Fold this protein.
Amino acid sequence: MNVVICIKQIPDTTNVRIDRKTNNLVREGVPSIINADDLRALELGAKFKEEFGAKIYVITMGPPQAKEALKDAIAFGLDEAILISDRVFAGSDTLATTYVLSQSIKKIEEETGHVDLVLTGKQAADGDTGQVGPGIATRLNFALGAYIMKLDEIDLKNQVISAIRRLDRGFEKVKIKMPALLTIMSDINEPRYPDLPNLIHSIKYEPRVWNYKDIDADSKKCGFFGSPTQVVRANIPPARKGGDIVSKNDDPNIAADKLIEALKKFKNARLIETLRPLIEGDL
Amino acid sequence: MKIEFDVVVIGAGPSGLSAAYVLAKKGLKVAVIEKGEYPGSKSVMGGVLYMNPLKELIPNVVQLLKESKAVERNVIEQNMWLVNENSVLKIGHRNQKWKEKPNAFTVLRANFDRWFAKQVEAAGALVIPKTKVEDFIKNGDGKIVGVKTTRPEGDVYCKAVVVSEGVNPLLTMKAGLRKKDIGAKDVAIAVKEIVDVPEAVVNNLFKVEGDFGATIEILGSWSEGMVGIGFLYANRDSISIGCGVLIEDLRRKKVKPYELLENMKNHPAIADLLGDYRNTTKEYLAHLIPEGGYYAMPKVYGDRILVCGDAAMLVNSVHREGSNHAITSGRLAGETLLEAFEKGDFSEKTLKSYYDRLNDSFIIKDLYKYKDLTGTIEKNRHFIEIYPDMLNNAATKFLDVDGTPKGEEQLEILKMIRENRSLGGLTLDALKLWNSVR
Amino acid sequence: MMENKRIFVLVEVVNDQPHPVSWELIGKAREIASKLEGSEVWGIVLGKDRDQICNEAIYRGANKVLYVKGEDLNDYINYKYRKAIVEMVRKYKPWAFLVGATLEGRELAGTIATELKTGLTADCTGLDIIPDKELLEMTRPTFGGNLMATIMCPEHLPQMATIRPGVMREMPPDKSRTGEIIVEDYTLPSLEPLIEVLERTPVTSKVNLQYAPVVVSGGKGVGGPEGFKQLRELANLLGGEIGASRAAVKQGWISDEYQVGQTGKTIHPVIYIACGISGAIQHLVGMKESNIIIAINTDENAPIFGISDIGIVGDLNKVVPALTQKLKALLSKPKAG
C-alpha cells in the first residue's frame, strides 16, 4: 500500500498578534508549525506503516522553509518527503493548489506504480478553507471520505476502508472504495512524540524538491495566474467591544428577566430554533 | 538500536555550542541535546555580544557574522546614564577603532544562537532540538555512560558529558556536583522588551549610521533603590530595552519585574528618547541570571562530566559578561575533553584540568576579583540610591545659571557631597562603581 | 451584458427538513439581486417529495426553484450530488452559486468548484456586490479570525462561496410570493459507487461542543463538579452543550473534552453563556467569535465583560437556575402569532 500525506506548514495562529496601533498582523517571531489536523494524518500514516508495512510519502507545497515541516513529519517514522516548491506556485488559491498537489501525487503514482490512499488534514488553521482535500479527490477521481474521525478497518483485499465520518447532521458509518482520499479530523488520534532514533533520522534527512517541471505542471494553471479567486483586501477586524452590563447585583429573578429582555434585542443575529418562539413570538 | 556518541552536550546555548564546536572540529562524534524548539528559542540576554571569546573559537567570526544576519549592529559607542527623578547625567565613550575592529555586536539571541548552531552542525555535530535530558545513565560502578532523554527509545550513550543546561541546575545536581539548588540571592531576573523602531529612527536616536550601533546603560532612581541596571541597545530596526534586578529585592519591595521595566521606560530621560516607540513592543522576555558568582559555583568537573556556562554560575555580576564566560568556558571544556580523548582517560583527575584552565583564563580571576561585589552593592545601596541623585544635583548646581558665583557653587557641591558621604568613602565607592559597570 | 444573472442557492435538506442556512442565503441573495439588474435568485432543491420545500424557497425569497428530482438524490452522497449539480450548472449557467458552510456544504462545494474549474471562497461571513463591475465581494476570516480577507472571482463563473450559517439574515416566509418551479427529472448515470453509507446517527451521545448552537460554559465561579448540573440543565433546555474554562478543568470538576480556549476547542456558537469565567485571553481566543456572548460573573471588573454583549453582575449559582426556570416557562407557551 502506498500512501501520500499532504501537509501544510502554517504560522502558529494562536500566536499571531495584532498591533492595534498600526493595525497590522504581527507575524514576526511567530513559529511555523505543522497544521494540527495534518499531524493526525501523519500519525495515521505511521500506524499504517507499522500495521501493513505501507510506504508513506509526505508532500507539502511551500517555500524552501517548509522543508522543516517535512523533516518533522519524517520523525514520525515515515518513508519519504518531497517539497513541492517553485516560484510559479506563489499566490495559488485552492484550485491552483489542488492542481499542483494532484500533479505531484500523479508523479508519485508514476514512480511507484500506484497510490492507494491520500490523507490530508480536515482544514488548515490559517486558511481555514477545508477545500483542498475534496479538490484533490475530485482531480484524481479518488473516492472522497471527508471528515474522518474514526477508522474501523482497511480491507486491502477488497480495497475498502470502513470509517466513521463527522457531519453537521451527525455521524456516518461509511465504506469507502480505494483508491481514496481521506480528510482527517483532529479527534481521530493523538499524534505521537517521535522516538529518538526517528528524530535523529529526521534531522539528517534531506527532502527531495520538485519544481513545476518535475510534476509536469502547466505553469498557467499554477500560482496567481492559475487562481480564479483573488484576495483584494485584508483587514484586521475591529476588536470586539463589550456591551452593556444589564444587571448589577439584582435579585436573581430580576437579573434573569433583564437578561431575557436584552436577548430579545438580538433579532438580527442568527436565531436558534429553541429561542425562535421566544424572540419571534414577541413580534 | 543503541545511539552512541563520543560526547553529549546538554543545552544548545553559547557554552554548549562552543564546546561542541571545538570537539566536532577535531572529528569527534558530538550530539547537542536542546530542550527548546530550536537553539536559542529559550535563550535570553541583554543583547550585547563581545567578539574576543568567539574569535578564539572561530578566528574569522567577525567576517562570518557580518555576512550573516545573525547579529544586529556593531557597537561603536557605549553610554552610562545616571538618573534621578527628573534629570540625567550622561557619560559616553565612542571609539573609531571599533568601526574597523568590532569589539561587540548587539544581537537578538534567537538569531545568533541559530546561526551558531549552524556553524556547529557544519563542523559535524548533531543538534537535537525539542528533546529534554532528564537523567544520566550510569554503569555498575556508578560512572556516567550516557544520558536519558524524555523521548521513547531516548537513551544516548557517550564517553563524556558536557552540562551546559543554563541557570536551572537540575542535572548538575543529579550528577552530584551541586548539593543545593541556587538561592534567591544568587539569582537576578532580567526582563526585556524588544520594541519595533524603524532603522532610520534607530540611527537618529543613537546617532549612528549603517551597521553601527550604540548602547546605553542606566543606573539610578528608576530601580527604586534596588540593585539593578537598565539598558537600551540599538538593534537593526528595533531596540532592546530591559533591566536586571536581584530577585530578593523584588520580593522585598513587592514589585513585579515588568512593573519595574515600565517604571524605567517612563523615566523622563527614556520617555524623551523613545517617545511613542516605547509602546511598539513586539516581544517580551524574562530570564533568570545566576549572579552568585564565585561563591555559588558548583564543582565544575567530575568523572566523565564537565559543567560550563550559566550552569557553572560563570557569570560576572557585571551583567554583560554572561555569554562571554559561557563561550570561553565552553571552549575550555571542549579543549579539556580533546586532551582526554587523546589520553583515552575521562576520569575526574584528567578533567580537573578544566578547572585549572578556567583559573588561568580571565574567568575565574574575574569572578574572584568581583566575588564580593554583589554583596558590596547590597550593603552599600548608596551606589543606587545616593550617587545618581547626588551627581545630578551637582550637575544642576553647576550648570544652572542662577547668579551664584562659580567658586561658591563648587563649594556648595562639595558640601552636598560631604553631607551624604565621607570623602574617603566616596573615592572608594567611585572606584567600585566604575569597576562594577565599566 | 449577459441576461438573467442567476444566483443559485443550494437548499440543504437534513432529515427531510430544510437547513436554516438555506433561507439565510436566499435572504442574502435577494439583497444582492436587488442591486444587480437582470438578476434572479434560484433555489436548488435535490431529492424527491420536496414540493413543500420548493414552495418555502419561493416564500423565503427565491424567484425560481430548480427542483432536481431524483430517487437517488434524497440523501446527500457527495459523488452523486456533485454529478447532478455540475450538470445543472453547465445547463443553466448561473452567475453565482451560494452554499451553506456546513461540513456537508463545504465538502460538496469544494468538489463542484474543482470540477467546474471555478473559484470558491470558503466559509464567508460577508457578501456584497460591486454593481458596476458585477462582481461579488466575499469576505471571510482567516488566521484564526485575526484577519478578514475580501476575495473576488473576476474571470470565472459561477462565482462560488460557502457561507457560514448564522451570519446572514433570513426573510420571514411570505406565502403570497409566487415563482416558477422548474422540475428536472434526473436519473443518475451509472457511476462506480465510491462511498456507501451504512448507517447514520444523529449527534447525541458525544460531547458536541464544536457544533452546538448554544454553549453554557463554566469557570472557577461554578465552585465544583455539582455546579455544572445547573449549566447542563440550561444547555439542554436550549438544545446546546456545556463548556468549561481551563480553570474548571484543572480543578478536575469536568473532563477536558469540554475545555474552550487556546488549549481546548475554538468554537463560535450562536450564543455563548460564560458563567463564572473571568475571561483570560487564553479563554477568549476560543470563544470570541461567538454570535452573542452573555457573561454572568460576580466581579464587575472581570475581563469577560469587555467582550460580552450582555453582562450580568451576579452569582451564577442563583442567576442560572432563575434563568432556566423563566426560559422553561416562556418556551413552553404556545407560539404566538
User: Anything to note?
Assistant: Chain A has a mean pLDDT of 90.
